[in-house]
Amino acid sequence: MTEENSVNPFLKASTLPCQLPDFAAIAVEHYLPAFEAGFAQQLAEVQAITACAEAATFANTVLAMERSGAVLTRVANVFFNIASSDGTPAIQAIEAQVAPRLSEHDDTVLLNAALFERMMAVPTEGLDEESTRLVTEYRKSFTRAGVGLDPAGQERLRELNGQLSSLSTEFSQKVTQAGNEAAVHVQDPAELDGLSADDLATAAAAARAAGHADGYLLTLILPTAQPALEVLTNRETRRKLHLASVSRGSGDGASNVLSLAATMASLRAEKAALLGFESEAARSIEPQTAPSLDAVHAMLSPITAAAVRNAGAEAEKLAATAGHTIEAWDWAYYSEQIRRDEYGVDLAALRPWFELGSVLENGVFYAASKLYGLAFAERHDLTGYHPDVRIWEVSNADGSTLGLFVGDFYTRETKRGGAWMNSFDEQSTLEGTHAVVVNNLNIPKPPAGEPTLLTFDEVVTCFHEFGHALHGLFSSVTYPKFSGTNVPRDFVEYPSQVNEMWILWPEVLGNYAKHYRTGEPLPVGTAEKLADASLWGQGFATTEYLGATLLDLAWHELAPGAPVQDPLAFEAAALAAAGINLPAVPPRYRTGYFNHIFAGGYAAGYYSYIWSEVLDADTVAWFKANGGLSRSNGDHFRNTLLSRGFAIDPLRAFHDFAGRDADTAPLLARRGLV
């Protein structure tokens, strides 16, 4: 072992609580050597499995495979979270080197014919249900990876995987760059009329952080819709902000990603054909809970027609309110007027009641304590990977440790847009490990000493992402492969969406929604008004979501061939063909910044949110019918579903929870599509 590796913190398990990575000891120069050591270690372990002279057994083949790659898992779990949340130039340079190497390594393992032969020879008689499932899932992994291809096919597959990995990394990095470049710099504060004093201070701080000597900077969040569009009274400022949002990644220059997207779609189509599928969408959906691509379209088609009709009616009402034709940059502003005038809801005015610390500890954590008996203790003695990161130890009702929750809430130039959950470690009784999960958000950081006041959408995001965290924390399985959120993509959003139901639950809302200065609760009736107003704007919300969903499917239903030459024309044609023909309602994500599908693992999978929402809406109805916020309900949900990971079929887990299959009626009612 070299002197460099002898002190590399990734080469052995951390001794910190729950094996939290020792961020105080981790330096940039540790990553590449740790990856190299991890690659070598797992390949040696695979070699030992295939060289075993004994007949294949569960222990010497499947279990040995499940335990392999410990160093690689440790470094990858940390590195790829850092690459997303604090992707400095040094980290980005390492990512560009590591991503194709990791793809090559995975191919070396999963295309190993001798290893596959041993997997297929493992007898399953006498194994328990979870162990039998582990054998089955490993066999599927090899088959899906292309182990059955001839040598020429495998060689081309390796080339495609390497190219796609490199392009995905480049796409993600360029989207972050494009978002930073597209931020709108404003000199005259009069052009920002409508923003609160706190928002102006945040925008001024953002301008200084970006290197501007004066003025204000409106930074962009990842989706098309930008929160400031709800309150800016200056129509020209709104137009500039909207155009900056929808055009990022699409202009001339280094941050243009359209050609990357087109190339990736073409390569994915070729890969799908090589593996025997009609399209990448068909290949991607095959292992999901959705039975087929046709089934996904069958669900989306009638919802799309109804949503577009509703959005059209909303546009007419907005135009009547505005006194002119509604453009995309007008929609949010006049929609908020209707919420104020007709429903008595002013979302911007509610921000003083949504202070981050209170939302988190008195809302998100409080709901989890009432439902599941959890306790949260902030660990100021533990070090995160960035000064803004906070860490809590999470305990069960009996005082036993459940795991660690890591919160990284603020935006920064080195963080990719959006919000997400990752795991630094996963629960497994095989390894005796607890879950260490992180939630990343992108909340603008206020000046020092000022409160962090959230928009209502950011409150929703806090609860949503913590639903993912609970899914990881509650895992109670034997094998890491099945732990926590390692479930089909079109099921993983379900628990997170369910957790949003507690936002307006009276007991929870009353506990966190207090004015940050006076401590006064929300005005009486606010929650009811918010609930009444929830159907307003569902036409827009559903249409913008479906626009992104159908655009995703269009890119991944392409036949193999040359890349699309004009991605923006392709995008427009795809939306028109799908019946999404409202210029004032652009997709939630356009091709130039659709990180989910070109860099986030959701290729042909953005439909997952509404597919999962069927289960989510039905589960919310179940909770309401059974008494709501109670330990008995929470424990039932935890024990039958949240703790099961992928150790059983997810739809079976839902049936175990609800006592029946899912009903679509609650979703249709929620979306105003009845």
3D architecture notes:
The protein is an alpha+beta fold. Among the domains are: 3-148, Glutathione S-transferase Yfyf (Class Pi), Chain A, domain 2; 184-247, no CATH class; 352-536, Neurolysin, domain 3 (Orthogonal Bundle), CATH 1.10.1370.40. The chain has helices at 3-6, 31-51, 58-67, 70-85, 89-110, 113-121, 129-145, 151-182, 197-209, 235-247, 258-274, 280-285, 293-322, 328-343, 356-372, 456-473, 489-498, 506-512, 526-532, 538-556, 567-577, 595-598, 608-625, 631-642, 650-658, 665-670, and strands at 184-186, 216-218, 375-378, 390-395, 401-410, 420-425, 435-443. A five-stranded mixed beta sheet has the order 3-4-5-7-6, with helices on both faces. A two-stranded antiparallel ribbon has the order 1-2. A hairpin with a 5-residue loop joins strand 4 (390-395) and strand 5 (401-410). The relative contact order is 0.11.
